[in-house]
Design goal:
Keywords: Signal. InterPro entries: BG_Antigen-Binding_Lectin, Galactose-bd-like_sf. It is built from 1 helix and 15 strands, in the order ββββββββββαβββββ. By secondary structure, the protein is mostly beta strands. The chain has 2 domains: about 60 residues, no CATH class; about 160 residues, Galactose-binding domain-like (Jelly Rolls, Sandwich), CATH 2.60.120.260. The strands form 4 sheets. Strands 7, 8, 9, 10, 11, 12, 13, 14 and 15 form a 9-stranded mixed sheet that branches. Strands 1-2 form a two-stranded antiparallel ribbon. It is elongated, with a radius of gyration of 26 Å.
């Protein structure tokens, strides 16, 4: 008998003995020759007949057989930004390193600055269906409202190329100052997810919007693509 097959004495009726064959943990099928393909909740074994997870998938997994990983990772070289504040800890990849204590930071924009607009971009590596974008913007003790005023007015584009000119606007922050940790529905199809903000002289901005010395400090950005969270690491 194969080590993958365990035989149990189920019951005895008269002279007849009924025997149930069940696969060892991690195997399934009529002959127990198929290895469980997925990752079941609580590290349980799959159903020995169907191969499915009877109690559902583990936290990081999805799909019929719980064999599709929820978190897809790309090389952090896929993150870029329009400018970078001087220093070794401010480039674009720090917005996608899964550490909210490190942040991408750009040069200032504003009505009195040389730069009037700013962008941060994630290359998904292929055309993708985007559903949601989560952003954590830098906070400083005692300066939350200033930071919300800097964050205010941002847009998110989904684009087939690296610019926003031919991209689709999927979210635009309104006149109310956004919270510094925000999750937005952002439906679109494209390869690039682009964060964009601007401060132009002559424009009338809502109350609370910072208009000069506007740093963009993105501490974490994640994109949900068709049910899968994409994190560049």
């Amino acid at each position: 008998m194969s080590v993958k097959l365990i035989t149990y004495l189920l019951y005895e009726i008269g002279f007849a003995i009924a025997v149930v064959n069940e696969c060892a943990a991690g195997w399934f099928g009529s002959d127990c020759v198929h290895q469980c393909p997925g990752h079941c909740k609580h590290n349980d074994s799959c159903n020995h007949v169907s191969g499915l997870c009877d109690k559902g998938c583990g936290y990081d997994w999805k799909g019929r057989f719980c064999d599709i990983k929820k978190f897809v990772t790309f090389n952090n070289g896929n993150a870029s930004q329009s400018t970078t504040y001087p220093g070794i800890m401010y480039d674009a990849r720090y917005a996608v390193d899964k550490d909210v204590t490190t942040c991408a930071r750009t040069e200032v924009i504003g009505t009195t600055s040389a730069d009037k607009s700013v962008w941060w971009r994630m290359d998904l590596g292929e055309m993708s269906i985007v559903q949601r974008v989560d952003i954590s913007f830098k906070n400083y003790d005692g300066f939350e409202m200033r930071q919300r005023g800097r964050f205010a007015g941002f847009s998110i584009y989904i684009s087939n190329n690296s610019g926003i000119d031919n991209g689709d606007l999927c979210y635009k922050s309104g006149p109310v100052l956004p919270f510094l940790n925000i999750s937005v529905e952002c439906f679109g199809f494209g390869r690039y997810v682009i964060y964009y903000n601007e401060r132009f002289p002559g424009e009338v901005y809502p109350k609370g919007f910072e208009q000069s010395n506007v740093h963009t400090e993105l501490c974490e950005v994640s994109v949900q693509e068709n049910g899968t969270s994409i994190i560049v690491v």
